[in-house]
Amino acid sequence: MGKRNSIKSEKATISVSSSAKNSSPSQKGVNAQLKELKNKYNYECSATDPVVVNLDIIPKLLFEGMVSQKATTVENAVENLADIFRLSSEKRIEAYQAGGHAVLVVTMKKWRLNESIQTSSCRCIQNMSCTNAEAKESFAVVGGMEAVLNAMRTFPKSQRVQRSACGALMNLLSGSDEERAILDAMADKFVKEWDGIALIVAAMRNFPKEVKIQLWGNGLFQNLAQNRNYRMKMMKSGAVTAAGGSLEQHSDDENIKQYASKFLRIMFS
């Protein structure tokens, strides 16, 4: 089995996303944006807890903002964290090493009815797992994939939750042959225990014009279809019909056409 498709981080240049920029931002520009985010969050939290202002941004967000009892504070913290992860691979690693993966899952469970927190948390998981095999395994251990799927079930009509969740799932279930053991274990649970295929199909049906949902849905299908044991389940869940709908709705999108067409070729090979 070859390398499975991955979307990397939200801002990475990738071969599968028409919305990705052709080049990554300069380091100078990234540093400026990170500084702006840090200053913004320092201002937001200083009024309530000036003691934490001198903490570095990652531990401040993880261990002050995200453990707050106030919904707005948690919303701001996880949104800032998602934006930082989008810009900096170093901050993603720092957060993972500090146990950020566990904090995210606990936060999603605690605030399961908060659409904003679920959206930003899925974005964080997408970016933390994009180039970090250890993070994927850790998310599997602490229930990261299950938390993402629960967000999809709770907010079936929320385009932003469904889009961010599809991105997180794409990365959690994608990687190289060296990651096959953990990828196969997660894929088995995704397909057999959590009925994840049906959730992806539902998202694609509910948001037929949303490019990223269609793209990442077909990417997931392509990855999963490489395992023959999943193909009947995919047929019964409507994955083939969903892929056909993507091709019809997005006939001018080369990336969607590539993923959907390859998925269908694999299914009927």
UniProtKB/TrEMBL annotation:
ARM repeats lie at residues 143-187. The keyword Repeat applies. It comes from the Eukaryota. PROSITE patterns: ARM_REPEAT (PS50176). Signal peptide: none annotated. Keywords: Repeat. PANTHER family: ARMADILLO REPEAT-CONTAINING PROTEIN 6. Residues 15-26 have a biased composition (Low complexity). Residues 1-29 are annotated as: Disordered. InterPro entries: ARM-like, ARM-type_fold, Armadillo. This is Armadillo repeat containing 6.
